Amino acid sequence: MKTEEGNKLIDEFMGITPEESKGFIRHVAPNSESKPIIIEILGYNVSWDRLMPVVEEIERSGANVVIEHGECEITTWKRGFSMTGMFEVKIDAVWHIAIEYIEWYNKNIKE
Questions:
Q1: CA 92 – CA 87 distance, rounded (Å)
Q2: DSSP string of 33-48, one letter each residue
Q3: All residues at 6 or more sequence positions from 96 whose CB lies less than 8 Å from its CB, including other chains
Q4: What are the pLDDT digits (tens) for 9-63?
Q5: Which of 10, 11, 27, 64 is most open to solvent, judged by the fewest CB atoms within 10 Å of its CB?
Q6: pLDDT at 17 (0 to 100)
Q7: Class of 3-108 in CATH
């Protein structure tokens, strides 16, 4: 999957909607006061600050996430998903396996 498509998929999983603004795509996240918060554009594939909340959301969905060196494993034994990815760069492994999990989650769990 292309990086832009993957990041959009993660946005949807996290409940963040894209908004066109002056030729730039800004991401708008709802907050408790129902006012949008504009999030700085930086891809999940290059920012641990953006990617780790995704990992936490995956864990809240019932999956186990293990990150070690250049490897990431996500499993949900009760639901039948298990995938491991190995890359030279750790964030690449986490991003790619998170995408695989989100695609599986959207097809099998999300209503």
A1: 6
A2: TS--EEEP---TTT-H
A3: 72, 85, 87
A4: 998 899 887 653 333 445 556 655 655 555 455 688 988 988 999 999 999 999 9
A5: 64
A6: 72
A7: alpha beta
User: Cα angle vertex 97, ends 31, 78, to 5°?
Assistant: 85
E-assigned strands of the chain? 17-21, 24-29, 37-39, 64-68, 71-76, 81-86
Alpha carbon separation from 105 to 20, 40, 46, 61, 78 (Å, rounded): 27, 26, 23, 9, 13
How far is the C-alpha of 37 from the C-alpha of 12, rounded, in Å? 16
> Looking at the DSSP assignment, which residues form a beta bridge with residue 81?
76
Side chain identity at 96, as an amino acid letter?
H
Q: 100 near 93, Cβ under 8 Å? A: no
Domain residue ranges in the chain: 3-108
Would you call 111 exposed, middle or buried from its count of C-beta atoms within 10 A (0-12, 13-18, 19+)? exposed
Entry pTM: 0.78
Query: In the 8-state DSSP scheme, what is residue 66?
Result: E
